[in-house]
What we know:
The chain contains 15 helices and eleven strands. It has a single domain, classed as Luciferase-like domain (TIM Barrel, Alpha-Beta Barrel). The two termini are about 25 Å apart. The chain is an alpha/beta fold. It has helices at about 20-35, 60-65, 85-100, 115-120, 125-140, 180-190, 200-215, 240-250, 250-270, 275-280, 280-285, 290-295, 305-320, 335-350, 350-355; strands spanning about 1-5, 40-45, 75-80, 105-110, 145-150, 155-160, 170-175, 190-195, 230-235, 300-305, 325-330. An eight-stranded parallel β-barrel has the order 1-2-3-4-7-8-9-11, surrounded by eight helices. Helices cover about 45% and strands about 15% of the residues.
Amino acid sequence: MKVDLFYELAVPAHLGRPESQVYLETLEEIELADRLGFHGVWVVEHHFMKEYSHSSAPEIFLAAASQRTRNLRLGHAVVVLPYNHPLRVAERVAALDILSSGRMEVGIGRGFSPREYQIFGSDMADSRHHLQEGLDILRQAGGGPFSHRGKIYHFDAIDILPKPIQQPYPPLWAAAVSPQTFQWAARERIGVLSGPFKPWFLIRQDLKSYKNAWKAGGHAIRPGENGQFAMTIGCLCLESRAEAKQWAEGFTWYYQRLLDQTRPVLAQMRQSYEYYHRLGFLEPLLRRGLSLSLLERMGMVVVGDPAHCREKLARYAAAGVDRILLALGAGMVPSEMVCRSMQLLATEVLPTLGPVPKKKN
């Protein structure tokens, strides 16, 4: 299992860190992660979500990160296609792939914010068409001139410039929450980024469904192929488990706001996960406040000393998770604490989960 980092660029008012500090310290953390041998880093795209996420221009942030790193894979998690024209996305991704010497990975998704849809002038009812047509366009953008005729986009003989280094295109992933999206991603033979606000027992079901659907298509998952399953969790690893838990109490702020943002999506999941709906899981989650202990029981965070983190992260690897995206500190602890945690993970946890990638000279 490969271990990546995940950033929302949260700017909680009560912590007193201005946006500029969050941006610069995050770049320093990413630079350290590159030296320590982490596999990759992912940055989200959100708009108008004050405090929770100030990452509205991730491609610019990733361009900066590309110049401060040499080994980390750089992931955009995710480009919201209903309000990003896929031809513009293809141009930006190719430029980033060149700047990073071929290290870009691209997540695509439909988004979930009605406000974003309204402001950017897109119809949420067309979101699946945007996703499918956008994927079809991105897959062709690395080659020569091509045409497209769909419900949303129409053009002839467009030649996208520049061209990405990775051919035929940088690895593609889909943000997935509903069971139908996991099935779709398997049929399209792209990786999945499992939605962060889901407990482990639901994600484990999605993991099995995705890999079974991939194999049902007549193809085994081969090394190097993008039939990969990734999931995101909050994490803090310190020498003392008690100290880690004390600092991680702030995680509840982050996850509560994540829940507030994804509440409409979770409510819709009740039909898709009818079995768990009957068990009474989703209603209490939608109603009650969160606690660190609840998040731990649900497998949504890993907090503790290196031995505890090794044990908890190993279960995801054993279940077949290909990538774990760690929201280290979840934007709720000082940067020096994140760096401490990163160093402990690199020396005492990562070597037990898989091979550390070779560094470029």
